[in-house]
Amino acid sequence: MAALGADVIATKRSGPFAPAPPGLRWLSDNNDELLREADVVVVAVPGSTSGLINATALGLMKPRALLVPIAAGAVDFAALEAVLNARPALRAVLDVWPSGCWDDDEASCGPPYGPRDWPGSPAFASLPNVVALPGLAMRDARFWADSAALAGANLRALAAGQPVQHVVRNATHSGRSPTGAAWQTSFLSLE
């Protein structure tokens, strides 16, 4: 990110990096200070970390900040949804969800793909300030091998006039936000 002109700041429990990676400016060991200063907050903590990004933490973030959590346990998703509804300029890219990846403790997704609760709430997918992804970042080599095998099997089945597996359909969801605004969104769903 520093190569792109970003001022990269960091915090961690055990103090400054020694030596600091190139392009990284140490801020402090105070998460509150980092949340107040950062334009983009990438939460890269162990999966066992819980509650780090809660309503209080979200309230400290800049009005137009972008949140990118990498570990689901660190996020209070109910608080995040409420804050994103209340603060439309705050943004989030969500690729992790409370149930992880099909509840697989090894975080390896195979067919059918994606977390069971994607999106964590259909309202997440409808918010204009959210990019909701189905757990794409946590894919491992097994996922890609399984995907290639499934694609090959489906091509062979299609050529033979047989049914294919895991057909993707367009799904539409609608509802009302906590503020009463109507929403409707479409996304792909597996059969």
From TrEMBL:
| Domain D-isomer specific 2-hydroxyacid dehydrogenase NAD-binding, chain residue ranges per copy | 2-134
SUPFAM superfamilies according to UniProt: NAD(P)-binding Rossmann-fold domains
- Matching Gene3D superfamilies: NAD(P)-binding Rossmann-like Domain
Q: Which GO terms describe its molecular function?
A: NAD binding
Q: What is this protein called?
A: D-isomer specific 2-hydroxyacid dehydrogenase NAD-binding domain-containing protein
